[in-house]
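To the team - 1-O-phosphono-beta-D-fructofuranose complex, inputs and output below.
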Amino acid sequence: MPDTSSEPAPVIIGNEPGAFPHGVLAERHPAIIRQVRDAFPYDPERRRALDALLASCADGVIEPLPVDADARDRRRWADWGMDAYAGRSWFDVPWLWAESHFYRRLLDAVGYFGPGVWEGLDPFRPAKLAELDAPETDEELAALDALADLPTDERTRALLHGSLWGNRADLGFRLSDSGPGTGTKDRVPALVTDDSDVLWSLLPPAGTSASGRSASGPSASGPSAAGTSATGPTTLCLVADNAGRELVPDLLLVSHLLGRGRIDRAVLHVKPYPYYVSDATPADVLDALRRLGAAGGAAAVYGDRLWTALTDGRVTVRAHPFSCAPLPYADMPDDLRAEFAAATVTVLKGDLNYRRLVGDRWWSPTTSFADATAYFPGPVAALRTLKSDVITGLTADTEAALVANGEQRWRTSGTHALIQVRR
Ligand SMILES: O=P(O)(O)OC[C@@]1(O)O[C@H](CO)[C@@H](O)[C@@H]1O
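Output:
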């Protein structure tokens, strides 16, 4: 039985040495600064700013935004809690807030917000392109050709799993529920919960009825499209996570769903600016699309379909400022709430989106996913590999088996994944 306790669990703070969140602030962030420092021949001013951020990560406090920051951005950060957290240690504020704000400061340091020659230059772009151009990506895209011989349902499932495990940058088009597995000793399937049947019931193939379609879904007043059902177009909001080898299978999935008539439209939500190293931005969508075209074969067919859908408006790309907010989705603004409310289903990819969806809290693992997401304005699904401590929706048996495995890193190592859906 899921735990339906309505008491919110404690918010995760990064102040416990030895714990995963502390390691991210104390070790990972400095490593990211060093990586960025080497990525471009930044001038002395930029390098000094990066060094100052490095020092601040170790023992500094969160500073207010610079006075020359864009006024709208300053207002946003004020709304997002800047006044409450300025002057406090990175380690003593909610971990989600500290991490998110770190990327804002990193972009300041490299001059991303300009003016100047570094304005708008993604400091993570070299790493993103290297991943996209890696031979593994070629192999994975070539493997798509073999999918053509599979029955449609199996292909649909393979593409869903490709998107899911792509969150581990592991575009394997896995055909079995067991996913990549965690070794023969492991008594728990890699997929710790799998609500994919519920997801497919929300997005049935063209010509069949969606029993669970959102009552608040787009009505006849929305723009018409070929294949639109009596209840309005079936719209998928896909809230993307990483660029490169995660975004590629996300795009393949969207293209496939369009091609099979399971969706009429898709809205792809990406980040307005570089974030969490590899998160996808609009430029990354274009890079991934070009990559599909250049691969030829089946990959190019998927890419062409998406290209056409972008040009005729069936697929749109959104980069909402709240996508980079240091807050849970429970605090989303009204315009975003209305967008998600109008979707047939919103699929959130990845670990960070999961943290923001259920709240970055020390939930008991058996906390009901439906309860934790009850505030979300429409049907919602999470496709996530487990890369941080937050978890909900496990059965008591699965939790016990994971713990009994003796492998304490199941929460953070990306060896397990979940598909959770609340209709
Ligand atoms: O959202 P993603 O790409 O699946 O994962 C991002 C992520 O692993 O990076 C963080 C550490 O910086 C984790 O807390 C976290 O959630």
